[in-house]
Amino acid sequence: MTATTHLPARRSVRPPEGARGVLMAVGVLALLMGCAALIGWLLSGLTARLLPTAPPYVLLLYVLGTLLLLMPLTVRLVPWIKNWYYLFPALVFLAAFTVLPIVLTVNYAFTNYNAVNSGQPDSTVRTAASLSADRRVVTIQETPQAGNAAEYLRCAKATCAGGTIVLFDEEASVPVRARVASVSGNRVTLAAPLAGTIQVANATRLNRYGYVGLANFRDIFSKASRALLPVFLWTVIFAFSTVVINAAAGLLLGILLYNKRLKGRNFYRTLLFLPWAVPAVISVQMWKALLNQQFGIVNKGLGLLGIVAIPWLGDPLWAKISVLLVNLWLGFPYMMTATISALSTINEDLYEAASIDGASRWQQIRSITLPLLRTSFTPILLSGFAFNFNNFGIIYLLTQGGPAQEGREATAQSTDILLSWGFNTAFASSGGQNFALASAIALIIFFLTLAISLVNFRAAGVFEEARK
């Protein structure tokens, strides 16, 4: 009787095939990156406690070092994963520039994060302080805007246990955050002796921010008639009107310039292409000067015809018309070029047959050109609507969302679209910043854009095409 020895199964070095293999590879790489980020974060936190003056980029060094150590170990456990390491740069950029901003936006939407509640030391109420010999008790000499240290630090508990105090040396160069054990009058007892050699000269509190649930969304919808509804309505009108006007102008010019019997058509094409070639920043600033009510050339020319100066950028209605006209100048070359490109795909024999049958030029355009252009133009029009729905540049450069309109919020004026409203809320809200409210607006914009896109795709029959 012989005993048989079972050798451990050798791990496969052949990567899984198909979509399952891609998903498994992405999952393993994402888990590897997550573990490296977690270990790097823990090590950087420990370093910050032991060495408060450590530079912030230590976190990156820890993450990269951990990643380099974990990669060979991962190959030993999952041999085929080395064939997918080329995805690392793409996943890093995806996580840094797409996933992380989305996660932060969703997180901030449910907080009170703003210029005041920023999680940073409050420099406006910094006060003189001293540290005891055992480096355990901080004595605050004055408590600005408060009666005692507990009120000054804005502690969540009456004893201030678990709170944070920020300490500075004489130069106030590097803030050191220390955990509080208790507070008695103006004396703050730390949870542990202050590490390092810092000589405390000043102290201040943290401007904490916390979760407030749906408070930001309630605030937005409670003022819907003064901000959300009018801004949303104008955003839809702006995007739809821009697409219709630009498409009509581009279609007309494209059909005219595609005529092979037109002399100098290449010169006309080049001339009409220039508005698209010139950077929009320059073009919009030029139009802003041209439409100036007092000194603009447009009103000067109208004055020669006896027409009263028009407040192009000073009246809510005329400002909206100005935005559409300037956006027409910027957008029609793209539609014209798309039309010319689409026309080149139509068989000339169709026009020759129509001419033989006695069809006029207009009948050929109506019965041949326009129906055949529909397939090419549908995705262009849908993408144009989505782009202009969030076309922040033209609004910011031409009108900055103004002019002011009575009954509106200060951040949501006559020409503001949803995106510029969110920008104003984030960076110019009552002279400060309200990032939490802006994040809530961003989430609302996301769901509105998603709903409109689904309606557009359904109307265009995109889903039916995908099922075929």
UniProtKB/TrEMBL annotation:
Keyword Transmembrane helix: yes
CDD domains: TM_PBP2 (cd06261)
Membrane topology reported for the UniProt record: Multi-pass membrane protein
Subcellular location: Cell membrane
Major site of localization recorded for this protein: membrane
Gene3D superfamilies, A to Z: MalF N-terminal region-like (1.20.58.370), MetI-like (1.10.3720.10)
InterPro entries to which the protein is assigned, alphabetical: MalF_N, MetI-like, MetI-like_sf
Keywords noted in UniProt: Cell membrane, Membrane, Sugar transport, Transmembrane, Transmembrane helix, Transport
TM segment ranges: 21-42, 54-73, 85-110, 231-258, 297-314, 321-343, 435-457
Domain spans labelled ABC transmembrane type-1: 232-456
Superkingdom of the organism of origin: Bacteria
Any Pfam family: BPD_transp_1
PANTHER family named among the record's database cross-references: MALTOSE/MALTODEXTRIN TRANSPORT SYSTEM PERMEASE PROTEIN MALF, MALTOSE_MALTODEXTRIN TRANSPORT SYSTEM PERMEASE PROTEIN MALF
Function: Part of the ABC transporter complex MalEFGK involved in maltose/maltodextrin import. Probably responsible for the translocation of the substrate across the membrane.
Name of protein: Maltose/maltodextrin transport system permease protein
